[in-house]
Request: fold
Amino acid sequence: MIVLGIETSCDETAVAVYDSARGLRSHCLYSQVATHAPFGGVVPELASRDHIRKLLPLVDAALARAGVVPGDLAGVAYTAGPGLVGALLVGATVGVGLAMGWGIPAVPVHHMEAHLLAALLEDDQPTFPFVALLVSGGHSLLVEVAGLGRYRILGETLDDAAGEAFDKGAKLLGLPYPGGPELAKLAGCGRSGRYRFPRPMLKAPGLDFSFSGLKTALALKVRELEAAGPLADDTRADLAADYQQAIVDTLVGKSVRALDATGHRQLVVAGGVGANRALREQLRAELSRTGGTVYYPRTEFCTDNGAMIAFTGYRRLELAPAAYSSVRVEARPRWPLEELTGS
Reply:
């Protein structure tokens, strides 16, 4: 079974081809970072327009690199949500239109389910059941995964997501867009321990997250230090190091607590923040100490990509092919993960 996957939920235009017999055969991505950098964040209308310009050429490129033609495909998977509605509509209408023209099913895919399953694209992969930590610019979730579509939310953010906390912290420190990777880079040059920031809700019972207070703590500290003049480079680096450490400590502490609560020993980390080196190192050390194992998608598949959409579309089509016989365009900017069903 060969499936074409289309991802347009935010500011990445991505297309991939997944083959159930041969694995991932191609993946193409166009990043809109340069488009949105002057604005310091994603401008939804500009994102939609770029998707319109880039999507069909990427489809052609992905098919050519995979060495397949439309007649080889069993389905077209596209991100149906959650995400920016205009961006979603571009991928959804193109995906459904191609599927209709080629006479094959169109499979709407949940963006967060695709992130959750991305680790299954790797040779070293988890088996069900496991706990997933999904951390990105818009989401921070701890999920118990019993099987495909069998998800139980253990904890979620009450305000800012972890990726959003990274991005907002970067803005406070005067770093360019995209802020999260820039803050992590600056933190690598700093000394942790000079400034003390809160670990939000880490001592509170439960598995929910909250990062807005941490962002406020950084803003207040920056304002206090800037009263004496512009921040020195080493001061900014030390602030970044301690701010990142507060986020990492919180994510690691809650993840370990989720494993203990469920009795599972496997943790999957996905989403853009999953590429953070400090988070990976601390999770690896902590789970090694407690007898757990942590799994990640490769770094390029932590952020939004077409490979995870194509793979999830294949798994969904394999599970219930009759479910995708009707033709309709689906674009859901809000789509709770718990609404999904499966095996």
Notes: Strands lie at 2-7, 12-19, 23-31, 75-81, 106-110, 130-135, 140-147, 150-156, 266-270, 293-295. The chain has a mean pLDDT of 96. The radius of gyration is 20 Å. DSSP finds ten helices and ten strands in the chain.
